[in-house]
Design brief:
Layout: E1 3-7, E2 11-17, H1 22-26, E3 34-36, H2 39-48, E4 55-59, H3 61-72, E5 75-83, H4 86-98, E6 101-107, E7 112-118, E8 124-129, E9 163-167, H5 174-186, E10 190-194, H6 198-203, H7 205-215, E11 218-222, H8 223-230, H9 234-244, E12 247-251, E13 257-261, E14 264-268, H10 281-294, H11 299-313, H12 323-332
Parallel strand pairs: 1-5, 1-9, 2-7, 3-8, 5-6, 9-10, 10-11, 11-12
Antiparallel strand pairs: 2-4, 7-8, 12-13, 13-14
Helix pairs in contact: 3-10, 8-9, 10-11
Length: 333
């Protein structure tokens, strides 16, 4: 069975439903964006929302995708950094419970956290404190041992895997991303990248274009991210992205998604659901898509599997679904 390795910012999501966009304006958080904040700003946001209901889940874009793949039964691994604290332990236990092989590095810094504010239209806005997650470096990619101690491993982390999935949020560390995709290519892995928030794409546009052209086989982007990278609307952006990577996917929210590879274009619809929170929808779409691809499905089938997972997760607050829902999904698939 083909194995899939992910790498990303290891974060714990703190989900907070809010009643209006006015709160985002008050907190100076642009709706739909991911803003990087320091620990003081993160604490200030939480303090301002102290009376609001909160829920926690292990998150980070790539971790969500890898977790979803593992819940489908795929063999997976994950590279990231967490702190030696309660949130770090929670994150690692969540991976192990799902069946993910953790290639974790442990830090004295606090584990990163993403405060996600969810408006009534199910849109989410992130104030993200990276914490220990930002300590992931190119040098860590030689680590193989399970306890994350700094040792020179003779066996590459990438050995034995067939796919390597990275999140766009990491592209701000150019050295890390370039080394990771170089190693993945050296070991013959198929490389996929899921774009970050549109503002992260805008700030790293030239680097992203270079990396995708040289190393990436599959690129996932929502319409805002695709527009930020190409300057084009979804359909034209899909055509442009397909010139850079073998498979291009542009997700268009409630309209579904579009996939292009070679001369073929597939328009994928959505399933009928009652949305509560869009957090994790794109990440879980990638889970379904990559699961299908690893099992020899057609691109249309891959897109349909992605749509099933994305549709199901938005009926939950946060990026995680109940075991009962996963059983239902596995039965349908």
């Amino acid at each position: 069975m083909k194995k899939i390795l992910g790498m990303g910012n290891a974060l714990v999501d703190i989900m907070i439903p809010i009643e209006s966009d006015n709160i985002l304006d008050f907190l100076a958080l642009p709706k739909g964006s991911m803003q990087l904040v320091d620990i003081d700003r993160s604490n200030a946001v939480l303090s301002a929302l102290n009376d609001y209901q909160k829920s926690h889940s292990a998150g980070g874009s790539a971790a969500n995708t890898i977790h979803g793949l593992a819940m489908l039964g795929a063999k997976t691994g994950y590279i990231g950094v967490v702190g030696e604290d309660e949130l770090g332990g929670y994150f690692v236990r969540d991976l192990i419970k799902a069946g993910v092989d953790p290639h974790m590095i442990h830090s004295n810094q606090e584990t990163g956290r993403a405060v996600a504010l969810v408006t009534p239209d199910s849109e989410r806005t992130f104030a993200t404190f990276l914490g220990a997650a930002i300590e992931l470096t190119a040098e860590h990619l030689g680590i193989q041992n399970a306890d994350g101690k700094m040792q020179n491993a003779k066996t590459s982390i990438f050995k034995g895997y067939s796919y390597f999935h990275i999140e766009g949020y990491l592209v701000q560390n150019h050295e890390l991303i370039r080394r990771a995709v170089e190693l993945a290519q050296e070991h013959g892995l198929i490389v996929s990248i899921d774009m970050a928030s549109y503002n992260v794409v805008e700030a790293n546009k030239d680097f992203l274009l270079s990396i995708i052209t040289e190393y990436v086989d599959i690129v996932f982007a929502n319409e805002d991210e695709a527009r930020a990278l190409t300057g084009l609307e979804p359909e034209e952006a899909l055509l442009e992205l397909s010139k850079l990577a073998e498979i291009a996917v542009v997700k268009t929210g409630s309209s579904g998604s579009m996939i292009k590879s070679g001369h073929e274009i597939y328009n994928i619809g959505v399933i009928d659901v009652t949305p509560i929170d869009t957090t994790g929808a794109g990440d879980l779409y990638a889970s379904g898509f990559l699961y299908g691809l690893a099992h020899g499905k057609s691109l249309r089938e891959c897109g349909e599997l992605g749509a099933i997972l994305a549709g199901n997760v938005i009926e939950f607050m946060g990026s995680k679904m109940s075991e009962e829902r996963w059983e239902k999904i596995r039965g349908e698939m």
